[in-house]
Design a protein that fits this description.
Layout: H1 7-20, H2 26-43, H3 53-65, H4 70-90, H5 116-124, H6 133-148, H7 152-156, E1 168-171, E2 176-180, E3 186-190, H8 193-205, H9 228-241, H10 250-265, H11 268-275, H12 280-283, H13 285-301
Antiparallel strand pairs: 1-2, 2-3
Length: 308
């Protein structure tokens, strides 16, 4: 019975379910694990089936008192809700106490995006002297980020050639990249000319880093698939040496892709498809970015807006 099984043991079973049956990424499963560990800590020795809505509301309030941001509290509540939903279906729990419990509202921040000029400055700057294999690789990765708006996990998961286990690959003849994103959904995104040229150069230089594992498209100096940390570190260094005024991380390039494409096309639905957003409301944040740019143009150009 659920009452005889600790929350910690049930959480472990739930995490195995997420990995094995739902095909969640290791990073996502790890995040769920942290949130469920907090739940188990708050619950103490109480069995999971004894928790009620007031308990979950109290746990959320404790997270708020600890200084957690509303977005982090909302993520924890979502994890708890999913856990209890699974427990009702698989473990005989009679109710889901996390249903209807909401986190404090947070002001929705706008994603940071580079200007078109800064994006060009970043990608056009020869910064590392001689074009060694790692520099050529970095150029190809960053061009592909900006060209196709990939997530970091999608980029590092690309394989050199597609097979049954591939999460993604680049079809250079067709000029597109095929990736498996959130929710295990596959999408195809066009790849621009300059990104294709950078990828072609990397295909040639890749042999210098190739060791035992020939599957990954992007290799580290040890011949292994690049890690998220490596990509983030290389991009930060690249941006600093190219004279960028602010720090740049991979998601900034994804935001820049979306913002610049929307400014040029005005097609929100197309941008949604290219980004792989399940809900168009997620994509609508970029309309605010576009409005900010329009506001700047208005302030400069309109006779009644200009300051004397």
């Amino acid at each position: 019975m659920p009452a005889a099984t600790s929350l910690t043991d049930l959480a472990a079973a739930f995490l195995s379910y997420l990995a094995a049956e739902r095909n969640y990424s290791p990073a996502t499963v790890e995040t769920y694990g942290r949130d469920l560990a907090v739940l188990a800590q708050f619950a103490g020795n109480r069995p999971g089936d004894s928790l009620r809505a007031n308990d979950i509301r109290s746990f959320a309030a404790r997270l708020h008192q600890k200084g957690l941001q509303p977005r982090s509290i909302a993520r924890a509540l979502s994890a708890w809700r999913s856990f209890f939903r699974w427990a009702c279906r698989r473990q005989g729990f009679t109710h889901n106490p996390a249903i209807g419990i909401r986190a404090p509202k947070a002001a929705r921040g706008l994603p940071k995006a580079l200007s078109v000029d800064h994006a060009a400055m970043l990608l056009d700057s020869p910064i590392n002297g001689p074009s060694d294999a790692e520099t050529i690789r970095d150029q190809a990765m960053f061009e592909l980020f900006y060209s196709s708006g990939l997530r970091l996990a999608e980029l590092i998961g690309l394989d050199c050639m597609p097979d049954a286990a591939s999460a993604g690959w680049v079809d250079e003849r067709a000029g597109e990249v095929i990736v498996t994103g959130k929710g295990n959904k596959t999408r195809s995104v066009p790849v621009g000319r300059q990104a294709l040229e950078a990828l072609a150069a990397w295909r040639t230089a890749r042999a210098q880093l190739l060791r035992d594992d020939s599957r990954p498209l992007f290799l580290s100096s040890r011949g292994k698939r690049v890690s998220a940390t490596l990509v983030q570190t290389r991009l930060k260094r690249w941006a600093q040496k190219s004279g960028m005024p602010a720090q740049v991380h991979p998601h900034v390039l994804r935001h820049s892709f979306a913002s610049h494409l929307l400014q040029s096309s005005g097609d929100l639905r197309a941008v949604q498809e290219l980004l792989g957003h399940a809900n168009i409301t997620t994509t609508q944040i970029y309309t605010h970015l576009d409005f900010q740019q329009l506001s700047k143009v208005y302030d400069v150009a309109h006779p009644r807006a200009r300051r004397k």
